[in-house]
Amino acid sequence: MTFAPGDSIxxxxxxxxxxLLDTMTVHWQAWRETMAAYGIDMTRELFDRLAGQTSPxxxxxxxxxxxxxxxxxxxxxxxxxxxxxxxxxxxxxxPVLEIAQRFSGTLALGAATNEHFGVSNIVMRTTGLTPxxxxxxxADEVDNPKPAPDLFLECARRLGVxxxxxxxxxxxxxxxxxxxxxxxxxxxxxxxx
Length: 193
Fold this sequence. Notes:
It is a single chain. By secondary structure, this protein is α/β, with parallel strands linked by helices. The chain has 2 domains: 11-23 and 90-191, HAD superfamily/HAD-like (Rossmann fold, 3-Layer(aba) Sandwich); 24-88, DNA polymerase, domain 1 (Orthogonal Bundle). Helix content is 45%, strand content 14%. It has 8 helices and 7 strands; from the N terminus they run ββααααβαβαβαβαβ. The protein has helices at residues 24-36, 44-50, 55-66, 72-86, 94-103, 117-126, 150-159, 173-181, and strands at residues 11-14, 21-22, 91-92, 108-113, 135-138, 166-170, 185-188. The strands form 2 sheets. The chain has a 5-stranded parallel beta sheet, sandwiched between helices. The chain has a two-stranded antiparallel ribbon with strand order 2-3. Helix 6 (117-126) links the parallel strand 4 (108-113) and strand 5 (135-138). Helix 1 (24-36) packs across helix 4 and helix 3 (55-66) packs across helix 4. The longest helix is centred in the middle third of the chain and has 15 residues, at 72-86.
């Protein structure tokens, strides 16, 4: 499917996990490994339902789901470590990467993710995508992650582009809601695949 931004669009902002990069299987495996140590089977269905949130938010959801207290910080760190171990398996999502490559140098490009900076930085460097983007904003750089608009608004600010002149690419309902709340045009990448 081809993509053509409107004349008013000056920047493209991409979510990373599940949008620009096929990281969801690696995230799922990392969650499965981590939660197995706590006696919780992170099935794919459960993971898919929780995906798109920050790790601490996912842990809070698991606490409610399994009616037990869990060490959110410890679990988040263990999950990140498991994810980084598997980072070399990550591949770009070709149709979305093609859009970023096609408009690199023509439009400002940014990335906005609910992931932490350290993990996102490793993933972007490992896949060689860092040079494509003029700005990357992560969950630990804003007060409120998705579904709040903060990540996208901060990315637009760093790119020097008004929110209404940004087109966002997202794969999760939390990300779509965040982009809409930011007043940006949004494409659910499932339409491109």
